[in-house]
Amino acid sequence: MSGKNIREKGIQSLLFLSGTVAVVALFLLCIFLFREGILLFEDYPVSSFLTNTKWFPTASPPIFGLLPLLLGSLIVTAGAIMFSVPLGIAAAIYISELANPRISSILKPVTEILAGIPSVVFGFFGLVILAPVVQRTLEIPTGQTALTGSIMLGIMALPTIISISEDAISSVPRSIKEGSLALGSTKWQTIYRVTVPAALSGISAAVMLGIGRAIGETMTVMMVTGNSAVIPGFPSGLFAPVRTMTATIALEMGEVPQGSDHFHALFAVGSVLFITTFIINILANYVKRRYRFNL
Amino acid sequence: MFSNAKLNEKIAFALLKVATGLVVAFVLVILYYIIYNGYSAINLEFITDMPRNRMTEGGIYPAIMGTTYLIIGSMAVALPLGILSAIYLTEYAQPGRTTWAIEMAINNLAGTPSVVFGLFGLAMFVKYLGFGPSIISASLTLALLILPVIIRASQEALLTVPKEYREASLALGVTKWETIRRVVLPAAIPGMVTGAILSIGRVAGETAPILLTGAAYFLPRLPDSVYSQFMALPYHLYVLATSGTNIAQTRPIQYGTALILLTIVLCVNLVAVSVRSHYRSKMRR
């Protein structure tokens, strides 16, 4: 009996150790990322990194200004969110409230397929099919623009926004909707005055996670946004090439010697990216939990 | 007034339908272009041959094998760890600070951009542990990337096992671990398999992490150990489409590679869905 007990205890400790693997992984990730990133500031002032408006990593002396990359990420993400949020929420409402079960059982796998397509395939599609269309339609010198990136990223953020919003909308209790209908409201009035407001916390979380997905996407933006590191104007910058934080890391890491300032600068950019998505994740989970529908 | 509300409803519903239609159209357009253009490039030689003539001719065999190695390597690490972690979280963990920290870490790992995982893999596996740019560095990096997916799927699978199963077994005097091993796990396996299969699709498609941890532009032969560099499907597509010497000339190879990649991912999804529904109907009986 006691042998059995010891075994049970041993297994429990082993499982606990495996249980903490996510914490350990996140911890190691922070350490290694920040350690390499901070080394940049031995040779290069933090203030210049944060405020300089130029990213000239190979000039002498090199200039590592974060701003053009940060703003590049922001403009592409903003463009993506502007069209994927309304579209995604509308599709989520349709799937959970209007479509009959047979149609929604087809629509759900369709969004799952969209979620499964690798980002490099999206990038390839954007580069070969969409960019020429954008160029011809807008009559601009190149189709590799922030707008092209926004369109592709918007499409890629759709599954995240749709599936989480749809969960939130369908978890609104039926009694509430029926109450509204019984008072004589139309189905649509019930949806936009009762159901959607009740699901708003889940929908906001969906939007935030969509933003997180878009800002962290690498291959697609790298292949379709043209990658020129200049501070984008607004809205004119949408129609010109930009370069995001993610694309900079992926493009330049292959060519820098390990341990150089440029190497550390890319880790510093990665740290900024990580902190940004970390905050977005925390906020999204907080919103989701804080306002969960209780009845 | 009343008819106005009805009219509004008609317009609103029409718009919702259009929006949903657009989403479906995006999927169909992307699939159409890749399948239509990639179909003619694919034949047996394309899958079994080495690239020739500076990658402008020949097949993509080493890239397919490279991706296979990555799938095996990362699953071998992430699957056992993820399942054990999920068992701890659903069967043993008490609500409290530790559990909160674990849940938070899983959520954050799931939302961390893949290129950041790449940087981490570069700093820790390639540089600090000295594995160099290699299959093992890339596999470990990808393993961490899919860990949250596997944990979440396994947790969900464990939660669907009815409480009565556990209680009946415990009431017979079986210990907690034996109950989990003999009763809970067998019932949860299909759900876990689904999660595992879905993360295969993720591993096959990820590019940014392997770009930083060991994917090679071109190798004329297969890697000879886990410490070798490797070719992989998504990176091969990226290289051919953006920086090859003959971007226009290799377009068919690009479409073919994209289609193979897409096929792997779609098959994986299909298998996962059918495993899920097969076992669901079996459980009901």
From TrEMBL, chain A:
It is found in: Cell membrane. The keyword Acetylation does not apply. It is a multi-pass membrane protein. Residues 70-284 form the ABC transmembrane type-1 domain. The chain crosses the membrane at residues 12-34, 63-93, 113-134, 146-169, 190-215, 263-287. PROSITE patterns: ABC_TM1 (PS50928). One of its GO terms (cellular component) is plasma membrane. CDD domains: TM_PBP2 (cd06261). One of its GO terms (molecular function) is phosphate transmembrane transporter activity. One of its GO terms (biological process) is phosphate ion transport. Keywords: Cell membrane, Membrane, Phosphate transport, Transmembrane, Transmembrane helix, Transport. It holds the Pfam family BPD_transp_1. InterPro entries: MetI-like, MetI-like_sf, Phosphate_PstC, Phosphate_Transport_Permease. It comes from the Archaea. Belongs to the binding-protein-dependent transport system permease family. CysTW subfamily. Part of the binding-protein-dependent transport system for phosphate; probably responsible for the translocation of the substrate across the membrane. PANTHER family: PHOSPHATE TRANSPORT SYSTEM PERMEASE PROTEIN PST (PTHR30425), PHOSPHATE TRANSPORT SYSTEM PERMEASE PROTEIN PSTC (PTHR30425:SF1). NCBIfam families: phosphate_pstC. This is Phosphate transport system permease protein. The gene is pstC.
Automatic annotation (TrEMBL), chain B:
It is a multi-pass membrane protein. Residues 64-272 form the ABC transmembrane type-1 domain. InterPro entries: MetI-like (IPR000515), MetI-like_sf (IPR035906), Phosphate_PstA (IPR005672). Keywords: Cell membrane, Membrane, Transmembrane, Transmembrane helix, Transport. The keyword Transmembrane helix applies. GO terms for cellular component: plasma membrane. One of its GO terms (biological process) is phosphate ion transmembrane transport. It is found in: Cell membrane. Its main location: membrane. PANTHER family: PHOSPHATE TRANSPORT SYSTEM PERMEASE PROTEIN PSTA-RELATED. NCBIfam families: 3a0107s02c. Belongs to the binding-protein-dependent transport system permease family. CysTW subfamily. This is Phosphate transport system permease protein PstA. The lineage of its organism: Archaea, Methanobacteriati, Methanobacteriota, Stenosarchaea group, Methanomicrobia.
